[in-house]
# Entry
Amino acid sequence: MTAMMTAGPVVGTGEAVLRTRNLTKQYGKRLAVNNLNLEVYRGDIFGFLGPNGAGKTTTIRMVLGLIAPTSGSVEVLGRDIATHGQEVLPRVGALVETPALYLYMTGRDNLRALSQSLGSLSEQRIDQVLEMVGLAARQKDRVRTYSLGMKQRLGVAMALMNDPDVLVLDEPANGLDPAGIVEMRELLRALAAQGKTIFISSHVLAEVQQLCTRVGIINLGQLVTEARPQDLTQGTGQYVVFVENAPQALALIRQQPWGVSARMEPNGAILTPAPENRGRNLNKFLVDAGFVPDSIMYQSENLEQAFLRLTQAGGAQ
# Structure
């Protein structure tokens, strides 16, 4: 894969390029998506998260006009796709679940076949997208010889063929090894830096935390939260302390007004607040008391922990 920028993700401009308004989909008595309101801004890499069966794929299919909502609407680039779909949906590139590939054809010929349906795009454009997704060296091999990760990258190449303004990607890291995940991250960051807006559904939450500018979490078809990853992973106000004679140190901490909630973790660490919520004050207290810490770390959640906390009710679709 060609070298890509490695800077942090670009924050969206505030211009909504994808918006759902009270989006609802009901199958008989089952409410798959319930009054969902999302806004995705230009330049965003927006992570769309939820437990299995939470309504993610149903939402994505409505966004792409593949199924009609029971009620509510989807706007792409400021236009309602129910009335302007033919105008705006060609400006959306999509990878939904497993890409539809011709296994007996080469990677390049798969893109040529797609090109014909898009109006016979140039061979130069095929060269560009193959280079972007790191498949230039394998373009003449039959797709049946590709790994799952390579097929996924070819699916992303197909989504990029028409140089779309918006990319909708369902599990683009599926089948990628750690190096492939890093390459995919750099590719998506580079595309966002070019002004493209990326809407991505993923179960790789550590990657979402590094990649996405904003996330929306749904559960049981309803929006639980929409925020920046860093806002969901703020600190808990407690510190993790490793120290010799931890039981005695814990007993002393619990005698302090600020430390009554301190507790011992299974790994032997002390989890405690700090005087005036400052780590250096906690360090000084322990040192003055004769308990010199081996380490003091501020505790914060990662995105996976925040996700589990927010979706602990579970759900099934």
About this structure: Residues 1-10, 313-317 have pLDDT under 50 and may be disordered. Residues 178-193 form the longest helix (16 residues).
